[in-house]
């Protein structure tokens, strides 16, 4: 026991009390430092979000390139493009070749491909405004497209679809966190 008459148990604290003149502990982050950390996190999340939203534009563009290549009889295709447009283009090419039909069928297929690509451009545009639903709907459609590719045995394209879906998912997570940070500020 301490024999010091000035020592009282109720005055004992495991953490020292700071006097008003003492600066804050160097381990406690200052408000400016916290704001700086939030800004860095927000910038990283913005980049992550933008990268995921941009996939919709890539999908639309490469799907159209695939369709144009198919329209002119080419066999090359980009693995990021939609399998649905490839199936339609392949069916139309078979119809045109099988019945010696004119190119009107190809034009109809191109308009279908344009409509699907336009839908993905719309998803990209709306996703850029931090909306959840275009990401979710676009991801569902792209997942169904991946399943179509698996059905036709295009495993590499289906695997790439999986990677793109993962990137889109991280963007949805980034949107959620950005909204939380916006509420804090």
Summarize the structure in words.
- The chain is an all-alpha fold.
- The chain has one domain (34-184).
- It has helices at 31-71, 83-98, 104-127, 132-151, 155-184.
Average pLDDT reading: 82
Fraction in beta strands:
under 5%
Number of strands: 0
Overall, the morphology is: elongated
Itemize the secondary structure elements and their pairings.
Blueprint lengths: L30 H41 L11 H16 L5 H24 L4 H20 L3 H30 L1
Helix pairs in contact: 1-2, 1-3, 1-5, 2-3, 3-4, 4-5
Fill in the keyword field for this structure:
single chain, 185 residues, mainly alpha, 5 helices, 0% strand, elongated
Write a short abstract of this structure.
This protein has 185 residues and is an all-alpha fold.
């Amino acid at each position: 026991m301490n024999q010091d008459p000035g020592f009282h148990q109720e005055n004992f604290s495991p953490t020292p009390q700071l006097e008003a003149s003492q600066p804050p502990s160097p381990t406690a982050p200052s408000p400016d430092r916290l704001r700086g950390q939030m800004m860095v996190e927000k910038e990283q999340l913005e980049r992550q979000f933008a990268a995921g939203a941009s996939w919709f534009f890539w999908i639309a563009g490469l799907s159209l390139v695939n369709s144009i290549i198919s329209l002119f009889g080419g066999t090359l295709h980009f693995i990021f493009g939609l399998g649905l447009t490839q199936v339609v283009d392949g069916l139309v090419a078979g119809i045109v070749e099988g019945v010696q039909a004119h190119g009107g069928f190809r034009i109809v297929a191109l308009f279908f491909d344009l409509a699907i690509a336009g839908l993905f451009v719309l998803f990209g545009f709306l996703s850029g405004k931090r909306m959840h639903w275009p990401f979710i709907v676009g991801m569902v459609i792209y997942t169904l497209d991946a399943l179509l590719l698996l059905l036709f045995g295009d495993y590499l394209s289906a695997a790439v679809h999986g990677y793109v879906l993962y990137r889109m998912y991280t963007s949805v997570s980034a949107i959620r966190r950005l909204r939380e940070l916006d509420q804090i500020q």
